[in-house]
Amino acid sequence: MIKKDGISALDVLTSGPVIPVIVVSNPDHAVPLAQALLAGGIKVLEITLRTTTALEAIQRIREKVPKILVGAGTILSGQDLHAAAEAGASFAISPGLIPSLLAAAYQESIPLIPGVATASELMMAREANLTELKFFPAQAAGGVEILQSLYGPFPQIKFCATGGITLQNYREYLALKNVACVGGSWLVPSEKIAQEDWSAITGLAQEAVTEVAKSS
Ligand code: 3PG
Hints:
The protein is an alpha/beta fold. The protein has a single domain, classed as Alpha-Beta Barrel (TIM Barrel). Helices cover 43% and strands 17% of the residues. The chain has helices at 9-14, 30-39, 54-64, 78-87, 99-107, 119-127, 143-151, 170-174, 190-194, 198-215; strands at residues 18-22, 44-48, 69-73, 91-93, 112-113, 115-116, 132-135, 158-162, 179-184. Strands 5-4-3-2-1-9-8-7-6 form a nine-stranded parallel β-sheet. Helix 8 links the parallel strand 8 and strand 9 (179-184). The longest helix has 18 residues, at 198-215. The protein starts with 8 loop residues before the first helix and ends with a helix. Residues 21, 73, 95, 136, 162-165, 183-186 line the site of 3-phosphoglyceric acid.
């Protein structure tokens, strides 16, 4: 489903392959953080709606760092989805899937990538014609093995695996046929943000992106 910005959920998943999941508490951190990630080779990031400043952070990144694709995460309701679209997010990601959110997604101008963790949830998403999904919480829900099992009945579904992804395991996920990208907070440790250590964040991004390029 391609939306207003001309960006589809598939574009988001294929722009990875690693998507930092970020909690921004200070809106002044948003722009330098996005610039640091861009310098490290990151093309898409997710700002979680877990702080009161998240929408402002999205707005600032959209305006000042247009080369990076900014999405809103932790979308729990149709209202969240609407607020994210108004703030300028190019896409939205939810940890789970509920009928009211699916209904709201039809009305909004940005694509929703809903979270699933079971075959039944996946079938609900399919029924709504959504085939690019977040698999969450990836590691706790069965990790690489459950994703391999889901490939059998659902080969057309592409996942962004998140939740418990680390520098140690992310390449195992990316090697799966049905995983297009991985997301995670490991790329943006909260203490590095608090210290405003942008070069450390660029370094972590570079490390992740370079390792993927080596193994692909
Ligand atoms: C989330 O939505 O919290 C993400 O999936 C990040 O999970 P992580 O902190 O385990 O990387």
